[in-house]
Amino acid sequence: MAVIVALLLLPLAILSAVSMTVLNEQGEAFRASVEESVHTLLPLTTLEHYLQRALVDELLAESHQAAPDFAGLTDSIDKSFSSLRVGTYSQDLPQDVMNDAHLAWMHAKPGVQRLVEQVRSVHAVVPQDGTDYTRQELERAIQDVSTARQHLSAVIEARYERAAAQRHRQLVGLVWGWVLTLTVAIVLAGAFLYSLVRPMRQLAQAAREIGNGRTGVRVPVEGQDELTALAACFNDMAASWETTRQTLVTEATEDPLTGTLNRRATLALLTAELEAGLRAHQPFSLLVLDLDRFKSINDRFGHAAGDRALCWVVDKVRGLLREGDHLGRYGGDEFIVLLPRTGKAQAERIAQRIVQAVGEAAVREPAYPGVSVGVATAPDAGRDATALVEAADAALYKHKQRHRAP
C-alpha cells in the first residue's frame, strides 16, 4: 500500500515543482523582456521627441531652453544595440530586422552629432541659410531615428512573439503533463481501490458461502499487505471450522463404538431414502438385525468381549453389502440395513447371506454371536419409516422364533 501511495503522490509532487519552476522562469523572462524593451526603445523615443520639438521651434538654440543631453542619448542607443547583439537572447533576434534597425541608426547618428555641435553654440548668431540647413538636418535625423525606432520595435516585437510562443508551448506542455499525470493518478487510484475492494469482496463472498454451509471455501492469498494477512487468517479459520464441523457431524451421526450410523442418522437417512424411492416408484427394503446370544457373551466373557463382538458383526455385514447400502446401529445389539432400489426377494437373499456368513464364523468362535434378520419392503409393508421398522421387527421376531437355539 505504501508503494501505491508513493506512486500516486510522487508524480504530482514532481509535476508541481516543475510547474512552479516554469512559471517562475516565465515571470522572470517577462519582466526582463519589459525592462529590455523600455531600456532599448526609451533612448530612441526620447531622442525622436527632442528632435521633433527642436524642429517645431525651428532651432533649439533660438528657444533659449536648456539643451537636451543628445550625447548621452546617443551613447545609450549605442549600448542598447551592443547589448542586443551580444546579450543572452541574441540568438532569438531576427538578424535582418536587427541589421536594418542598426543601419537606420547609423544614418541618423551623424545628423544627431551635428545637432549636438550646433546646440553647443547656442548663443552664436546663425545665418538664415544655416537655419535652413539645420532644419533639413533635423528632418533627416528625425526620419532616420524614426526608422531606427521602428526597426528596433519590430526586433523587440518579433522577439516578444517568439518568447510568447515558447511560453505558450510550455503552458500547453504543462497542461498536458497535468492531464496525463492526473490520468495516471486516477488509474493508479482505481487500481489501489480495486486492490482493496477485491480482497474484501472475496472475503465477503467466502463468508457467505461458509454461512450457507459450504465446505472447502478459501480465498486467494497474494501479496504481503494487511489484507493478505487477513486472508491467511480467514483460511486458517475456515480450515479450523471445517475440522470442528466435521468432528461435530461425525459425533452427531456416527456410533462411536462400531463406526456405523447412529440411531438419529439412521432414521433420518431411512426417511430420505424411503421418500426418494416412493417418488421414483422404486422399491425400498429394510433389514433389522439382532445378535443371537449377545447377553450370554456379555455375561460369560465380559462387556469388552461384547463390544468386540459388535464390531466383528459390523465388519462381517459391511463385507456383504453393496455400494449404496447403509448400515446403522439402531440400539444395543440391533442394527438396521437400508437397501435402496431393492425388492423383497433380493432383500431376502441378502439377509440370508448375512445370516449364513455370520453364523458360520460364530460356530468356530464362542465369543462371537449369530444374527437374526427381519425383512420389510416398501410400499407393501408401509409407506413411512415407522411402519417399515415395525414390519421388519415383526419379521425379525418370527425369524428368532424359528431359529432360536436350544
From TrEMBL:
Native source organism of the sequence: Oleiagrimonas soli
Q: Which cofactor does it need?
A: Mg(2+)
NCBIfam families per the record? GGDEF
> So what does this thing catalyse?
2 GTP = 3',3'-c-di-GMP + 2 diphosphate
Q: Which GO terms describe its cellular component?
A: plasma membrane
Task: Please tell me which top-level EC class this enzyme sits in.
Answer: transferase
Protein name in UniProt:
diguanylate cyclase
Q: Report the domain of life of the source organism.
A: Bacteria
Ordered alphabetically, the record's keywords are: Membrane, Transmembrane, Transmembrane helix
**Enzyme Commission identifier(s):** 2.7.7.65
Question: What positions belong to coiled-coil segments?
Answer: none
**InterPro entries in UniProt:** Diguanylate_Cyclase, GGDEF_dom, HAMP_dom, Nucleotide_cyclase, Rev_trsase/Diguanyl_cyclase
According to the entry, every stretch annotated as the HAMP domain falls at 194-246
Any idea which GO molecular function terms this record carries? diguanylate cyclase activity
Q: Which GO terms describe its biological process?
A: cell adhesion involved in single-species biofilm formation; negative regulation of bacterial-type flagellum-dependent cell motility; signal transduction
Boundaries of each GGDEF domain copy?
282-406
Q: Can you tell me where the transmembrane regions are?
A: 175-197
